[in-house]
DNA sequence: AGTAGGACCTGGTGGC
DNA sequence: TGCCACCAGGTCCTAC
């Protein structure tokens, strides 16, 4: 579900509510959510500790304990993280609860059970391959036109697939990739290597703008995304193509089209995107 | 090296 | 109302 702007919004809202609070224990109701440790090990590592820092890399959340151990969470499609009073009624699909001082708890709720949680007790991100191999983030200093050019040149794969490849650009998902390509006027199925330098420049600018605006609007609630406070995002009002099949393009009025690329729906304007 | 397809899961929607 | 096929914002693995 959440892409970079949503995960960043969750990070910002959550850090106010979980940092520097004593962890009293954990409860794992879906065992497979823990990918590299048992419930017992997880409980032992967290109990009587506190989180001191909450970072984000791509779509991963990284929570640092005062022991220097780290908890890494990826929400995948439907994961949600919310802080609630301990006696708040249990929702369906709760995978994990972390009990904190102050009679509150952090809940991981995940309808499709794809979300993953790791406990890292050694330096580095080795055990989490996707995290260890992430590319540049759109708003990171190193994400330059030159960098993007290196990522696309010589590739025959569709530019959309390249944008979704987290090793090349960290944090884009289906929504923000489509919105970036629309704003750059590039058809998602174009071979990446066929983009001119002008198009790469436009795409670079579009990605940064779309991600920046996405964060400013606290993410996109297309289905059920909410931040750590339970609030919906606002960027869905600003979507130009995603989910708008058949509706008029805001630039030219042509009905928005949809194609399957790499198994994913891609929305685009047949006239504005070449 | 690339890419297509299946796997991981559940629920909502639309067709009949 | 019931049943069924299909769809979903992500990533990983295997097979070609």
What does this structure look like?
This protein has 274 residues and is α+β, with helices and mostly antiparallel strands. It folds into 2 domains: 4-132, MutM-like, N-terminal (N-terminal domain of MutM-like DNA repair proteins); 145-268, Helicase, Ruva Protein, domain 3 (Orthogonal Bundle), CATH 1.10.8.50. Helices cover 26% and strands 22% of the residues. The strands form 3 sheets. A 4-stranded antiparallel sheet has the order 1-6-7-5, with helices on one face. A 4-stranded antiparallel sheet has the order 2-3-4-8, covered by helices on one side. Helix 1 (4-18) runs parallel beside helix 7 (197-216). It starts with a helix and ends in a 6-residue tail after the last strand. The mean pLDDT is 93. The chain binds a DNA duplex (16 and 16 nucleotides) through helix 6.
Key features of this structure:
274 residues, alpha+beta, N-terminal domain of MutM-like DNA repair proteins, Helicase, Ruva Protein, domain 3, 2 domains, four-stranded antiparallel beta sheet, 7 helices, 26% helix, 22% strand, DNA-binding
> Helix- and strand-based class?
alpha+beta
Task: Compute the separation of the termini in Å.
Answer: 28 Å
Unreliable spans are: none
Question: Helical amount among residues, as a percent range?
Answer: 25-40%
Share of residues in strands? 15-25%
Number of helical elements: 7
CATH fold-type name of the largest domain: N-terminal domain of MutM-like DNA repair proteins
Highest-level CATH class of the largest domain: Alpha Beta
Give the name of the CATH superfamily of the largest domain.
MutM-like, N-terminal
Largest sheet: 4 strands, antiparallel
The average pLDDT score comes to 93
Q: What does the overall shape look like? A: globular
Tell me the strand order in the biggest sheet: 1-6-7-5
């Amino acid at each position: 579900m959440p892409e970079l702007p949503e995960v960043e919004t969750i990070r910002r809202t959550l850090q106010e509510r979980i940092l520097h609070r004593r962890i009293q224990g954990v409860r794992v109701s879906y065992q497979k959510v823990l990918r590299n440790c048992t419930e017992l090990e997880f409980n032992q590592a967290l109990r009587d500790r506190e989180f001191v820092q909450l970072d984000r890399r791509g779509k991963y959340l990284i929570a640092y304990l005062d022991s220097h151990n780290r908890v890494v969470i990826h929400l995948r499609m439907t994961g949600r993280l919310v802080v609630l009073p301990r006696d708040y009624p249990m929702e369906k699909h709760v995978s994990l609860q972390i009990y904190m001082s102050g009679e509150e708890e952090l809940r991981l709720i995940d309808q499709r059970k794809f979300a993953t949680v790791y406990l890292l007790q050694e330096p580095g991100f080795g055990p989490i391959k996707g995290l260890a191999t992430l590319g540049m983030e759109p708003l990171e200093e190193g994400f330059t036109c030159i960098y993007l050019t290196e990522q696309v040149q010589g590739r025959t794969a569709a530019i959309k697939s390249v944008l979704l490849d987290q090793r090349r650009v960290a944090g884009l998902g289906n929504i923000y990739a489509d919105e970036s390509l629309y704003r750059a006027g590039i058809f998602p199925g174009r071979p990446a290597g066929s983009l001119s330098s002008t198009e790469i420049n436009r795409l670079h600018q579009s990605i940064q703008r779309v991600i920046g605006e996405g964060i400013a609007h606290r993410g996109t609630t297309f289905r059920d995304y909410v931040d750590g406070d339970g609030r919906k995002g606002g960027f869905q009002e600003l979507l130009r193509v995603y989910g708008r099949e058949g509706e008029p393009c805001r630039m030219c009025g042509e009905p928005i089209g949809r194609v399957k690329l790499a198994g994913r729906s891609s929305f685009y304007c047949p006239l504005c995107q070449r």
